[in-house]
Design a protein that fits this description.
This protein is mostly helical and about 200 residues long. Helix content is about 75%, strand content about 0%. It has helices at about 1-25, 35-50, 65-85, 90-125, 135-155, 160-190. It starts with a helix and ends with a helix.
Length: about 200
């Protein structure tokens, strides 16, 4: 009986996550289309999303990552509910493993996204693309502070070109993804085995 209820709750949370994702996509288009459906979706999702607004995890970046935090939280909750529903047991180790796994999934997604942005910018340099457009300016406003901050920590005050800074930036992000995946998956396996 409890397992059936938990499976239903897990399904409801998954559907709610899809609705939130749809709501987030609507905001990407500036003037979101008006209509009854959009109004209903906003009314359903905005109270939850507003709980995460203003949480400054990535301070200084011109991008709002609060929806990512909102989805991470729901994902962790859903994973725990699903684990209880199908395994009929839960331990502190499993909860910690689920939390760590979800946090790494979100973090690695963001790191990968910034890596893709860096590679796109490097390709623009390689092919001498006219970078006066809005897309390239936005990309530079996002990447330059990160790349130069990283270079300042590594190069000990030596100046470098933006292109070289991006190469170093991309290399460090690849290293973070590879090492992070190995370390986090090892730690998740250890945590999941804890009997408590």
């Amino acid at each position: 009986m409890l397992q059936t209820v938990l499976r239903g709750v897990s399904t409801a949370v998954s559907i709610y996550m899809l609705v939130i994702f749809f709501r987030i996509i609507l905001t990407w288009f500036g003037q979101a289309p008006a209509g009854r459906l959009v109004e209903i979706i906003s009314r359903i999702t905005d109270p939850y999303l507003n709980l995460f607004r203003g949480v400054g995890v990535f301070g200084g970046l011109p991008v709002d990552f609060s929806p990512v935090l909102a989805l991470i939280t729901l994902s962790i909750l859903n994973n725990i509910i699903t684990r209880i529903a199908f395994a009929a047991q839960i331990t502190l180790g499993i909860v910690l493993a689920e939390v760590l796994g979800a946090l790494w999934a979100a973090a690695s997604f963001i790191v990968f996204l910034f890596l893709v942005f860096g590679v796109i910018r490097l390709v623009g340099f390689m092919f001498h693309v006219n970078t006066a457009g809005r897309f390239w300016i936005t990309l530079d406003r996002l990447l330059q502070p990160l790349a130069y901050r990283l270079v300042s920590k590594v190069s000990r005050g030596r100046s470098t070109s933006y292109q070289n800074a991006l190469l170093l930036y991309a290399g460090v992000l690849v290293l973070v993804l590879l090492l992070g995946s190995f370390l986090i998956s090892s730690l998740v396996n250890v945590l999941a085995q804890l009997p408590v």
